[in-house]
Write a structure and sequence with these properties.
Layout: E1 5-7, H1 11-18, E2 31-34, E3 39-46, E4 49-57, E5 75-77, H2 88-93, E6 95-100, E7 102-108, E8 114-121, E9 127-138, E10 141-151, H3 155-158, E11 164-165, H4 173-177, H5 183-187, E12 198-202, H6 206-210
Length: about 210
């Protein structure tokens, strides 16, 4: 599961890392506590050119009757993503990269207590989640939304939660974004990120009170 994350990198650094073409209408704001239903930055590829976009976090499939479905679809299980009606079409045609500086998870200590953790790369400044996006129309209303794929946890994450986000290496970006990539190769990317390349830090619950 991935229900909170941060993105605090400078826009110039993001552009350099993802090699995207800047759009005049793109607006970027750093956020150290991004939650479902909020706006998130993503990178998409159109005709082999990458662009930055803003999506609402919580995928709303085209057939949805109500945008509230997005509160249940901010994550998609990689094991069934090509089968579920809400995600199947997007998995084939609308894949994206979702940058993050860190993500947060809570470890259950007791029936009343949970310890939050901040999870970051061990030797890098960016995490890249595997994402999907969709467009939903309701009359004149147009909403572009996204979801983050999850997979089984690596050894470090298993001590905290039974799921973790799918994290992509930069060498996999093109394969993930391109519609030309065979689906079996796309699926091969949906694996746990190595424990050795992640670091976990306990943080105070007060952090979330201050950043809301």
């Amino acid at each position: 599961m991935c229900g909170r994350f941060s993105l605090t990198e400078a826009l110039n650094d993001l552009q350099e890392h993802y090699q995207f073409t800047m759009r005049e209408d793109f607006q970027y704001t750093e956020n150290n506590n991004i939650a479902p239903s909020q706006s998130v930055m993503a990178v998409v590829e159109v005709d082999h050119v990458r662009y930055p976009v803003q999506f609402r976090w919580g995928l709303i499939p085209p057939f949805a009757k109500d945008e509230k479905i997005g509160f249940k679809t901010f994550n998609a299980r990689s094991e069934t993503v090509d089968e579920k009606p809400s995600f199947k079409k997007a998995f084939h045609k609308k894949r994206c990269l979702i940058p993050a500086s860190s993500f947060y998870e809570w470890k259950k200590i007791s029936s009343k207590e949970k310890q939050p953790y901040s999870i970051k790369p061990a030797s890098a400044s960016l995490i890249t989640f595997a994402g999907l996006w969709e467009t939903w129309r309701n009359g004149d209303q147009l909403v572009r939304s996204c979801t983050i794929l999850t997979t089984t946890p690596n050894d470090k994450m298993a001590s905290i939660h039974d799921r973790m986000p799918v994290i992509l290496d930069s060498s996999s970006y093109e394969k993930w974004l391109s519609e030309e990539t065979p689906l079996d190769e796309v699926k091969s990317l949906l694996v746990p990120f190595p424990s050795s390349r992640m670091k976990l830090e306990e943080i105070s619950s007060d952090f979330f009170k201050k950043s809301t």
